Amino acid sequence: MSDTDFPGWHGTTIIGVRKGGKVVVAGDGQVSLGQTVIKGTARKVRRLSPGGHDVVCGFAGSTADAFTLLERLEAKLEATPGQLQRASVELAKDWRTDKYLQKLEAMLIVTDGTDLLIITGAGDVLEPEHNVAAIGSGGNYALAAARAMIDSEKDAETVARDAMAIAADICVYTNGNLTVETIEA
User: Fold this and answer.
1) Nearest-CA neighbor of 23 among 143, 158, 157, 163?
2) How far apart are CA 52 and CA 77, in angstroms?
3) Do 91 and 55 meet the contact criterion of CB atoms below 8 Å apart?
4) Which residues pair with 39 in a beta bridge?
5) Of 173, 165, 138, which is closest to residue 149 (Cα–Cα)?
6) What's the confidence (pLDDT) of residue 10?
7) Which residue intervals of the chain are DSSP H helices?
8) Is position 12 annotated as part of the catalytic site?
9) Residues of the chain with pLDDT under 70
10) One of 12, 63, 174, 182 is an active-site residue; which one?
11) Phi and psi for 7 in degrees, rounded to 5?
12) Among 69, 65, 62, 66, which Cα is nearest to 33's?
């Protein structure tokens, strides 16, 4: 099978919502290969505690690539304890300039409860507007839904869960099996 015939891996939606002194990161569990769901219960949101400082990370893209990036981020956080922005910028610089890392296909949402950041392979470390970040196949659907709800009476977790439910209804590469992690500022 040639590279052009390979249907490609798809799957996941990750959202981060900051509201009321909390940040919630939620991710679905679907991994698809072409038109086939390979797994519906993958865990793509994780809590790291390098140097005793909690950080919640969600990833979209290749799982092996994402784990490589999470390991690198954890090392950066151990070198700069409690400085998520600095560690994220250092990871993005390495990701952009290292020939091995450049080939990695994943994106990350990271938070320490204060900062909420998206890290990409293009060297971006983005702090999203409106206290909502989303990545992955259904990321734009979840982002739009969460932004519509962010000023409501709903708390951060409810906004994240409801936005993910909307994304799962629209995006065929997103399901309703959620992993949710909350971290306070």
Assistant:
1) 157
2) 10
3) no
4) 31
5) 165
6) 58
7) 63-79, 84-97, 139-149, 156-170
8) yes
9) 1-11
10) 12
11) -70, -20
12) 62
